[in-house]
Amino acid sequence: xxxxxxxxxxxxxxxxxxxxxxxxxxxxxxxxxxxxxxxxxxxxxxxxxxxxxxxxxxxxxxxxxxxxxxxxxxxxxxxxxxxxxxxxxxxxxxxxxxxxxxxxxxxxxxxxxxxxxxxxxxxxxxxxxxxx
Length: 132
What we know:
Number of strands: 0
CATH architecture of the largest domain: Orthogonal Bundle
Number of domains: 2
Helix content: 55-70%
Distance between the termini: 59 Å
Order of helices and strands: HHHHHH
CATH class of the largest domain: Mainly Alpha
CATH topology of the largest domain: Multidrug-efflux Transporter Regulator, Chain: A, Domain 2
Mean pLDDT: 90
Low-confidence stretches: none
Structural class: mainly alpha
Number of helices: 6
């Protein structure tokens, strides 16, 4: 694969062109130099970098966390233990979010039980709880 235009890059990485531009602004993807005439050309390795970013997002990492992971990736003296610590922190974060979602679910289930279909909305326990 040779150097790619931004459209080709986005297509290969299965992202939107605006996503590439956003990642450039955030410093996650290097912006190639602008030639005197024609389009900027991205190295083929940028496709892998974009896929890395998208996969990390799918695992719940924020762009700031991904930036940290990318910095660890290029560090020649970086050990896997540092990456492992980031993953462990992410697991703790995910578990906390799961507990929070489970609390929300339990609360909504209780409100559904208290809710009678024929009540008027001014007597609706769901709406009343949201107003408190």
